[in-house]
Amino acid sequence: MIATALLALALVQAPDSTSLIAQGAALDLDGHYAEARAKLSQAIEKAPTDTAKTPARRSLAISYAFTCDTREVSRYEHQVIDPRVASKDYNGAADVSNELGRLLLECGDVNDALTTYRTGHELALKQANLSDTAKDLWDFRWEHAQARIAARRSNAADARTHVAAAKAILDKGTNPDQKRFFPYLTGYVALYTGDYKTAITDLGLADQRDPFILCLLAMAYERSGDPTAATPYYRKILEGKQHNPAMAFARPMARRKLATT
Fold it and tell me: Is 135:178 a contact under the CB 8 Å cutoff?
């Protein structure tokens, strides 16, 4: 099985929180979700401090995202977000809020995704002595999120407005490392607003190591009437070993699609 090597490595280690997270991740990748969550719950219990529980809580949230159990996703993400807000770690809280917003969006909970992304943006702007570069970064992420949400609502005009706003922020040149996320944005918007040719072109310029991008490309080919072209992308997804929000959406879909081909 794809994750056997990762699981075997974890099993020879002492069953501390870190190795239990690795075991849980491997089980998720092989589709054994109940067993994965049991390991990740143990990892939370084993972690010696509340701060040390953070990686396990985020991993458990991602585990629930594999089956789009958004109530549990939100529950475990907020166990990380809320203490950070309480301690005025606004940047850290905003990071996890963005992660939660993405998980909610890709599970189809568009309204809660918008609320969560907005909260993340507001938290980020509460940071003391926020630099112009950091503000531009969070404004870019907020426009990026709003464009994707508008696309999911089939509101092409609103999506284009937010895409233009995101590009204007990038054009300031304050966050050049974010340029790599722009083809993902334009490809995503094109996919969900029915422009499959543009989706294929733009997503082809995005990070081909990202399973989520591969999944979007496969979807674009399918919707354009070329399901055969989608198959290699689904197969490549199953070669990956990431346990992250991208894989939580991509891997279950790839497994379903390849089971019917």
Answer: no
Residue 151: count other Cβ atoms within 10 Å of its Cβ.
Answer: 23
The answer to pTM > 0.90 is yes
| Distance separating alpha carbons of residues 133 and 173, to the nearest angstrom | 9
What stretches in the chain show pLDDT beneath 70? Answer: 1-15, 261
C-alpha dist (Å) from residue 255 to 28, 137, 188, 201, 215: 12, 35, 21, 25, 11
**b/e string for 3-21 if b means 16 or more Cβ within 10 A?**
beebbeebeeeeeebbbbb
B/e letters for 39-58, b = 16+ CB within 10 Å, e = fewer, are bbbbbbebbeeeeebbbbbb
Q: Let me know: does 76 contact 37? Beta carbons within 8 Å.
A: no
Tokens 């991602």 map to which residue?
62
Q: Is 237:211 a contact under the CB 8 Å cutoff?
A: yes
Q: Are 258 and 238 in contact (CB under 8 A)?
A: yes
Q: Which amino acid is at 206?
A: A
Task: Say what angle helices 211-223 and 245-259 make with each other, to 10 degrees.
Answer: 40
Nearest to 126, CA basis, from 93, 171, 163:
93
> 67 in helix, strand or coil?
coil
